[in-house]
Design a protein that fits this description.
The chain is 43% helix and 12% strand. The protein is an alpha/beta fold and 404 residues long.
Length: 404
């Protein structure tokens, strides 16, 4: 049976191949150290859970909620932006609650994309950044570039060679998957370029609070005038260890926020009201919970970088996010990231995310998530050390090549 048009436009979901192999290994009794999916293992802070329990006892909160987010929640997000970034937002017109940043991105794509619209998108990147627009009829022009001096020239080429001219530019710093961080000066240059070329900026800032080195990551909305063309998406999933709660935000330009809110009004009634109230309490907190989560990830990062290096895998230390962007070791580079990821499950009981799942330019890397405790990360390193040592033996070359 022929697939539907929109489904045909989507490539095979490479992560599913790894997930099937992982499930099969576990069914055989293997103890898989899962550093693949970016699914936080930390419990949601007790005060947030307690607020949910308190509010859910009131039957009035069991009714349909507000698609845009209850007023108190939108005010709390606006106050967070004022404290953290010095950005003033109108909670009535410049803030909308989303069911996580992923849903916000997908529905924004639906709201603003006409068939054939061109969107500039870094590659590699988080899949919804590209495929939200592809599913909406748009066309992606990939930018294989980092947030440095090469970025603006890449944008210039993208505009020069795109027909029609690009509608929007996707930004995601700290980046998933590369963990790269952008500076405020970088955002100033990008905003100036986007304004000159009438391009919308959509910024994913889901990892704003998970940083380890240097200054806290900035918001593109800190650039004067950025709010004329930009919307930014944030999430409570990582910041407050609330992934299953599905709570996020889009903030910024009134026209774009209104378009997103209108689309959402046809699709959902918003998150369950007790979740929104608990999220409000989290945002209005003193920041202790955020600092504790950040410290846990920092310690895990340090253990990962040190123990994996001792095992023979040199990985650059990420300055932010809950991921390390790890080059496939030279002796396995010929396999590609997907086959290397399969190899790690089958021969080291370690799961990672293949870089090719984030775009073809990610195929020399895998993403390693900091979602297991320090003991388990060291266990993964020991398993990897045995695999790497075994791979150096001449009689063990055939099983590795067989994965091709």
């Amino acid at each position: 049976m022929e697939e539907f048009h929109k489904v045909r436009r989507l490539p095979p979901y490479v992560f599913e191949q790894v997930n099937r192999l992982k499930a099969s290994a576990r069914a055989r009794g293997a103890d898989i150290v899962d550093l693949g999916m970016g699914n936080p293992d930390l419990p949601t802070p007790k005060a947030i859970v307690d607020k949910l329990v308190e509010v859910v006892r009131d039957p009035r909160t069991h009714r349909y909620s507000s698609s845009r987010g209850i007023p108190g929640l939108r005010r709390a997000q606006a106050n967070y932006y004022a404290r953290r970034f010095g950005v003033k937002l109108d909670p009535e017109t410049q803030v909308v609650a989303t069911l996580g940043s992923k849903e916000g991105f997908a529905n924004m794509a639906q709201a603003i994309t006409a068939p054939g619209d061109v969107v500039l998108c870094p590659n590699p990147t988080y899949p919804i950044h590209a495929f939200g627009f592809i599913m909406s009829g748009g066309v992606i022009r990939s930018l294989q570039v980092e947030p440095d001096d090469r970025f603006i020239p890449a944008l210039e080429r993208g505009v020069r060679h795109s027909i029609p001219r690009p509608l929007a530019l996707i930004l995601n710093y700290p980046s998933n998957p590369t963990a790269l961080v952008a500076s405020l000066d970088f955002y100033k240059d990008v905003v100036a370029f986007a304004k000159k070329n009438d391009i919308i900026i959509l910024s994913d800032l889901a990892y704003a609070e998970i940083y380890f080195d240097g200054e806290p990551p900035p918001s593109v909305l800190q650039v004067p005038g950025a709010i004329d063309i930009a919307v930014e998406f944030t999430s409570m999933s990582k910041t407050f260890s609330m992934p299953g709660w599905r709570m996020g935000f889009a903030v910024g330009n009134e026209r774009l926020i209104a378009a997103l809110a209108r689309v959402k009004s046809y699709l959902d009634y918003g998150a369950f009201t007790p979740i929104q109230v608990a999220a409000t309490a989290a945002l209005n907190g003193d920041g202790t919970d955020i600092a504790e989560v950040r410290e846990v990830y920092r310690k895990r990062r340090d253990v990962l970088i040190d123990s994996f290096a001792r095992a023979g895998w040199q990985i650059p230390a990420p300055a932010a996010s809950m991921f390390a962007w790890a080059p496939v070791p030279e002796q396995f580079r010929h396999l590609g990231s997907l086959e290397f990821s399969k190899l790690l499950i089958e021969h080291a009981d370690v799961a990672v995310a293949p870089g090719v799942g984030f775009g073809e330019h990610g195929d020399d890397y895998v993403r390693v998530a900091l979602v297991e405790n320090e003991h388990r990360i060291r266990q993964a390193a020991r398993n990897l050390k045995r695999l790497f040592a075994s791979a150096k033996q001449p009689n063990n070359v055939v099983p590795l090549a067989a994965h091709r």
